[in-house]
Specification:
The complex is a heterodimer of chains A (about 260) and B (about 325).
Chain A: H1 7-16, E1 41-45, H2 87-98, H3 100-103, E2 124-129, E3 132-137, E4 143-147, E5 162-168, E6 171-177, E7 197-204, E8 209-217, E9 226-234, H4 252-256
Parallel strand pairs in A: 4-5
Antiparallel strand pairs in A: 1-2, 1-9, 2-3, 3-4, 5-6, 6-7, 7-8, 8-9
Chain B: H1 3-11, H2 13-20, E1 38-41, H3 62-75, E2 111-113, H4 124-139, E3 172-177, E4 181-186, E5 191-196, E6 213-219, E7 222-228, H5 237-240, E8 251-260, E9 263-271, E10 280-288, H6 303-327
Antiparallel strand pairs in B: 1-3, 1-10, 2-10, 3-4, 4-5, 6-7, 7-8, 8-9, 9-10
The chains are: A alpha+beta (about 260), B alpha+beta (about 325).
Chain lengths: ~260, ~325
Amino acid sequence: MRIRHSVSVFCAASVLAASPASLAQEDDIPRLSDGTPNFSGVWQSLTTANWDILSHGASAGPPEYGALLSVPPGRGIVDGDEIPYLPEALEQKQRNFESRWTEDPEAKCFMPGTPRANYMPYPFQIFHSEAGMLFAYQFAGAARIINLDNHQPSAIDSWMGWSNGSFEEDTLVVDVTGFNGLGWLDRSGNHAGYRLRVVERYTFAGPDAIDYEATLEDPDTFSEPWTMRFRLYRVAEPETHLMEFKCVAFTEELLYGEFYKRPEE
Amino acid sequence: MNKRSILVSVAVPFAVCAATGCEAQVERTPWGDPDLQGLWSNATLTPLQRPDALGDTAFFTPEEAEAYVAERIEATNADRTIGQTGSVGSYNDAWFDRGNSIVPTLRTSLIVDPANGKVPPFTPEAQQQHEANLAYAQDHPVDTPADRFLTERCIVFGGGAAPLFPEPYNNNYYIVQTPDYVTIMAEINHEVRIVPIDGRPHFPERVLQWTGDSRGYWDGDTLVVETRNQRTNRFFYGVQMLNSVMSDQFSVVERFTRTAPDQIRYEASIDDPAVFTAPWSVEIYMHPQEGPLVEYACHEGNYGLTGMLSAARAEERRAAEAEQSTEQ
């Protein structure tokens, strides 16, 4: 399904009709004491979208690393398998692709942005209670507080965006704005600008899976809103919680190596 | 709880706790744990160590406290140093957040043990290491990022790791709880410390993290958090302010107690037998704040580190050129 309506129309329509995609029975998903679906847990996607959110075949990485950094094939996560770029934005995407091994914010251990953080090959953990909601991402230790009440506009521009969340029936809807326009959507250079607005929808598909969709709109980058969707799986091994992946130190040679004083040989 | 009792407990939380026990007034989560959730700040003007000038004075009188607060606010006003020699004008006073008060006990230091309010002396081995570190830093101030503070590299800030010491700015925390976790997010450097409270074991000793490996449990209405597996570094923030060293025996036990609706008492005991001749403890108070917290991106815009490294190389080139022209 290709979403061609504006985001606001899309949201309004989904209030009226219960989501047909949801396979969850009312009783088999975890809930908080107030009946709200409880999204607490460690989650991860099983896509190759972090390499390219569009469908792609396998391809080679930098030859010095053999098969280690080669690109695994994968079905895309974008409705219609096409991103409605404006002409200049498409050119920017091509330039990004050519410089991806050094210019992808992921290579620099920059915060990955929303929605990319949700389909990176790293887990993230949601802490959800009657009093609040926090998304903690393993990659770069990125974090998002989801404002479930007291919705305010974003105070600053940011990498991860400003997240105002609400519930439509059993679906968590997060309206994300306030981006700084510097993030990429994948290692292929797909991107959006600072006027990006992401509307995310999280719906349980059974107790251990979440159907995720995100509609992206940015009048400076895209000719119309478009939607991605994929499934998040619960990391179900017992006693699992996020381990630390502070990757900043791993990037210092890349970012500052030209200014190092090295021991004389 | 009615409004009247909130007002009473705000005014004299310790008296209320002492007279009746704290249990009666503790707010609880739906599953019955004491509720620590929300936005908090641990900003305070109380110094970590008791200033020498105060001698044996462990507590201020209210009048002394008032004078001390006024003196500190004046002395730390960054607007007064702008333009002075040595000041690069990086921050004016609006950036700082040291608070406008001292701890409610009126103690003269955050350190409560030992009784002199000072960090215990180093062991002889640690003293030796400390001096070696200083000598190395003198000769290699900025060869590579590894010569700089972890905060300057945006790797970890004090708010991300135990113990939680107040910083000159950004002492803001967001705590969210579930039956299995207490998670403490610091606004600074978007640090998230996940504390499982379900009895799961620590990571194996070979797994080291900048934020350590924390496990917690409820001791009555107090959350006790034990942290080990701390990645060691001579610039680790918690001891950075002491220009200290740390060993792989470093461990911290923290205790969070909601002593009033508007207060968490935070206690931390620091033990590193290879470094300190005795364990030592601090007591700090957290108070609610309105927020909202925003994203603190540090590494993503770290022009400071580029500036320090490139300036050092430029100075070296200039010195080498000067030497060459002298020889000619």
